[in-house]
Specification:
Layout (H helix, E strand, L loop, with lengths): L7 E6 L7 E7 L31 H12 L4 H14 L12 H13 L8 H11 L4 E5 L8 E4 L2 H11 L3 E3 L1 E4 L8 E7 L5 E9 L8 H14 L7 E4 L6 H8 L2 E4 L2 H14 L3 H15 L5 H14 L4 H10 L4 H10 L5 H18 L11 H25 L14 H6 L6 E3 L6 E5 L7 E5 L7 E2 L2 H4 L5 H13 L6 H15 L5 H27 L15
Helix pairs in contact: 1-3, 1-14, 6-7, 8-9, 9-10
């Protein structure tokens, strides 16, 4: 079969007339699976006359082989694996099944000879890449005049994963990655796979980091998805930036919105350990910051809380200066967002953190510092190396091939490590929930201490937590507190509950406004029921019995 051509026929010998044969065409047209011409003068990919006759494997197999090569699978292992798969399917019957060592060697040569720099000028190089890979671009806007640069990337495989796991599932945002090092920050849209591992299904690179401009590419992305499946609809969308236009996201995705505090939490912990040396002071500062963030009173009271925080910890000048510079200008946005949106739980945080650490290791190495200023390098790396890593991770999970080669970084997050800690290794005093002890799984003589167990602002003395990460000890203790129902009501659910109580206890006098409020209360009732389901599934901070309102 030529270049994936589906044209084929059956030859039947006529025994009564041995010099003749009956040819029955099963497919007369020289087209591939997509219906496009695949060889001859009508094939747009043909170059010269040689392509009229040169056989070509399918795009699906080409992506598979290229991904295996990118993650380091050897030529011999690829050929042997392909041979085993073909034999397991009953032998060869199309062009893909006749993959040769020369095919794999040629694709390896393409990888070695490929370059991100298609032009000396970065902007021109990006435009050339977009022209060559239009099916991988769902939105593109050049940097002209007052118009900011935006490019949205999504491969066919990512589109399939978004259709598969995004429908009735959860989609998150991981924004502002590389803000200090890359030319333009990267925004990722991951979904959560069957094993609750993260799969990035779209990337957006924009010169202007402003959540209010997200409507430019969100509509194009959702439109592309619903062209394939008009019924596609996620269960919830997790935003990690309070400047995002929530109404646009809710209208476009037609789902509930949750708030992710992963960036806030990581930044505060990392800087507390870097700028403050006393562990007891770190613990109290983190707890106080939590009260500021979840303050249920008006903004003037939040300002008073912040001033009091700065006075109490005035001797911690390094952290106070950091907080004043980096967080004071935008803390009001976060406090307001927490009052209006439910907060996601630690389970998606662990998966998002695993994704962040992998991206940091691959993209922000000093080895690549000379190319950080180029967008074409970032696009090339995302659509080749990073894409191949997640394709391979999902491939091994589904087929169990190459399990010994699999890195497992996307699935091996703190949540999974916490699940493997036995309950008996957690010492939790239900009468005094000030702290909990977790025995080390590698050294039984060591026990780690978790303060404020079960709360959003638990703190641990292990090395992994001190680096700003979400550790397995904090997650394990939170799991037990939820199972035993001994944790204090979470600040997030208290804030959300108070907003609903105020709406019910203080109805407006104007009948038109009252009708509008009743409409919103009915919608909130459906929201809360959905949030309870999300809480039970582990994607939302758990709701205690006191936090669930009775609308009957």
């Amino acid at each position: 079969m030529m270049r994936g051509c589906l044209c084929h026929f059956t030859v039947k010998r006529l025994y009564t007339r041995p010099l003749l044969a009956l040819i029955i065409y099963n497919q007369r047209n020289h087209v591939d699976k997509s219906g496009a011409p695949c060889h001859g003068t009508r094939d747009r990919d043909s170059v010269g006359t040689r392509a009229m006759y040169a056989p070509r494997i399918s795009d699906e197999l080409r992506q598979k082989i290229m991904s295996l090569l990118y993650v380091g699978i050897s030529l011999d292992d690829i050929v042997q694996h392909h041979s085993d798969v073909v034999q397991g399917n009953g032998g060869p019957h199309n062009r893909d099944h006749f993959l040769t060592r020369n095919d794999v060697r040629n694709m390896g040569r393409v990888i070695r000879n490929s370059s991100h720099e298609l032009h000396v000028d970065d902007g021109s190089s990006v435009k050339m890449w977009v022209q060559r890979h239009q099916k991988h671009v769902f939105f593109f806007q050049e940097n002209l005049g007052s118009q900011s640069f935006v490019i949205g990337l999504q491969t066919d495989w990512q589109l399939q994963q978004m259709l598969r796991y995004g429908h009735n599932g959860y989609i998150a945002t991981h924004s502002s990655f590389g803000l200090k090092k890359l030319k333009y920050p990267l925004c990722s849209l991951p979904v959560f796979g069957s094993s609750h591992n993260v799969i990035p299904v779209a990337w957006v690179i924009a010169s202007s980091y402003d959540g209010q401009n997200a409507h430019k590419w969100i509509g194009a992305l959702v439109g592309r998805i619903r062209t394939r499946d008009p019924r596609w609809r996620p269960n919830a969308f997790l935003v990690d930036d309070p400047t995002f236009d929530i109404s646009v996201i809710r209208t476009t995705f037609q789902c509930r919105i949750c708030l992710s505090l992963w960036h806030v939490r990581r930044s505060w912990i990392k800087n507390l350990y870097k700028k403050c040396c006393n562990f007891d002071v770190q613990r109290e500062m983190f707890k106080t910051l939590g009260r500021i963030l979840y303050c249920m009173r008006g903004w003037p009271c939040v300002v008073d809380e912040i001033e009091e925080f700065m006075q109490i910890f005035i001797d911690q000048s390094m952290f106070v200066d950091y907080f004043r510079t980096c967080w004071l200008p935008r803390i009001e946005l976060w406090v307001s967002a927490i009052r209006t949106l439910p907060v996601a739980s630690q389970e998606p945080y662990a998966a998002i953190e695993s994704y962040y650490l992998m991206m940091k290791a691959k993209l922000l190495k000093e080895l690549h510092s000379n190319t950080w200023s180029r967008v074409d390098w970032l696009i090339h790396t995302l659509t080749t190396e990073i894409h191949s890593l997640y394709w391979f991770e999902q491939f091994t999970l589904e087929t169990e091939y190459f399990r010994n080669t699999r890195d497992g970084s996307s699935a091996n997050n703190s949540w999974y490590r916490a699940v493997h800690i036995p309950d008996v290794d957690v010492l939790l005093d239900e009468e005094n929930l000030q702290l909990a002890k977790v025995i080390s799984q590698t050294d039984r003589t060591v026990a780690y201490t978790v303060w404020n167990p079960g709360s959003e602002f638990s703190i641990c003395d292990c090395t992994w937590f001190r680096m700003g990460n979400l550790c397995k000890h904090v997650i394990k203790v939170a799991m037990l507190c939820k199972i035993r129902q001994v944790a204090r009501p979470l600040l997030a659910t208290q804030v959300y509950r108070q907003a609903l109580v105020n709406l019910m206890q203080n109805p407006p006098d104007d009948p038109i406004v009252l009708d509008h409020a009743i409409f919103h209360l009915t919608r909130l009732q459906q929201e809360v029921k959905g949030l309870v389901d999300m809480s039970n599934s582990g994607m939302l901070l758990p709701l205690t019995q006191g936090d669930k309102l009775n609308f009957d």
